[in-house]
User: Fold this.
Amino acid sequence: MNAARASLLRLLCASAAIILLAAVLNFIVDPLQLFRPARLTPAAYSLDSRTQNAGLIRSQQYDTVFMGTSLAIHFRQSDIDRILGVHSIKLTMTGSNSTEQSFVLAQALEKHPARVIWQVDDWIFHDAPDIGADIYLPANLYRRNARGIAEYLFSGSMARESLWLLARSIAPLQPVTSRLTSDVVFRFSLSNIDDINALPRDFDVAGTYNARAASAAFRRITDPAHSMYLAQDYDYDAMVRHFERDAISLIEKYPDVSFDIYFTPYSILQFVAMRDASPATLKAVYDFSVYAGRRLTEYSNVRFFDFRAAKEVTHDLNNYSDVIHHSPAVDLKILHWLAAGDWRVTRDAPTAQLEQLKAQVEAYRTDGVAR
Assistant:
């Protein structure tokens, strides 16, 4: 009995030692750069924005925050800085809703940047879990409370990343570790912050963004078997409620921060699909656009842009991989529009761009697309 008890005690002590060793390793290496910028090993970054952003906010110096969804995920931070003359941090998150975006922005704003550039659309302002119940975004990691720090330091998977980062920092091993490092196997596979969720330089843009892909997406979402999804998460009352809570409250809380907020240039096919297959959804979009335009133009620290009527982009279907996601060439156009102040919504004409969009949607014919 004494021998069994001694063996159990040795096992428990060994387990505790391993767990403690993992915590020490994670603290020293700090793969997420949650406590300090990378020092012991070269900086590395993950494609998992919802986790990586917690580290970026703590480790990077910035005067501008860039926020958005998958419609802004491929912007390069270097392009934002070059065209707008800023020192930015990109915190975009694929499929993110306004609850998540507002929470992450609030954490970033604690470092007192001068400017926020925020890509929004009507879809993000829908009902979603409270941030504490969001299983995809580690809120406690952003808050750096006891639970968040403990989950980070005592994570076995994070310890594996720490060991691999150490291995990659040893010069004789670098030829091997470079070949073996993959975002399929390791979370922190990127060495350049500019590459976070940016398309590779040799990416086949024309093969992904083209009229054939956009037209196929239009036919799919207007098919009666799928058109119900056009109305998903488009509830006007919910949109207004979340807009006020997640956007307006943030703008009011930080009156010294300049907010550049823009409606992204969906292809014309997105609105035409609503027109043809879900007119109630289109009405909700229009009604929300009126509300948002009037509210945002009330604030002196906000510049609001509506790019949805930029016909030279939105009617050229070769700019899209489906009916909403635009190519990197349009990313650059958006940055230039922001720099020049083009398509800005003004207080004296808050629905001018919307009226242009309505006219375009009404006039558009799908004869060459619907087949």
About this structure: The longest strand covers residues 115-120. The mean pLDDT is 92. The radius of gyration is 23 Å.
